[in-house]
Design goal:
CATH class: Mainly Beta
CATH architecture: Sandwich
Helix content: 10-25%
Order of helices and strands: HEEEEEEEH
Structural class: alpha+beta
Number of domains: 1
Strand content: over 45%
Distance between the termini: 71 Å
Number of helices: 2
CATH topology: Immunoglobulin-like
Radius of gyration: 19 Å
């Protein structure tokens, strides 16, 4: 019984100080989409507010995404600009309910379509 009580007491601070983190995304990390996504969905372990987000195609300069959702949510949907076939890196910074910053990147690709391949 004492061992159980001690382990519960030791585990409590870990839970109290846990920060939000990304649980999943659509598209997923490393995914190659057959069609360009119109949105990217980020699912977090707690409600967050997206502070900044940018999208980089290959080695081109990153472009800031200005149409960010307002308010807080555990699931955040980011509108994407029109995407050409290529590799993209989405970089984001969010603020969790505990006011700690949560940052991350998501890399995905858009596969060339038959129409875009014929143009080259």
């Amino acid at each position: 019984m004492n061992a159980l009580l001690i382990s519960l007491l030791l585990a409590a601070p870990v839970a109290a100080f846990a920060h939000g983190h990304l649980l999943s995304s659509v598209p997923t990390e490393g995914q190659t989409a057959s069609e360009a996504p119109r949105t990217v969905t980020l699912k977090f372990s707690e409600s967050v507010q997206i502070a900044t987000a940018s999208l980089q195609e290959g080695s081109s300069p990153a472009v800031r995404l200005d149409a960010l959702p307002s308010g807080t949510a555990a699931t955040v949907v980011l509108a994407m600009p029109a995407l050409n076939p290529g590799r993209y890196t989405l970089t984001w910074r969010a603020v969790g309910a505990d006011r700690h910053a949560v940052t991350g990147t998501l890399t995905f690709s858009v596969a060339p379509t038959a129409a875009s391949s014929a143009k080259h």
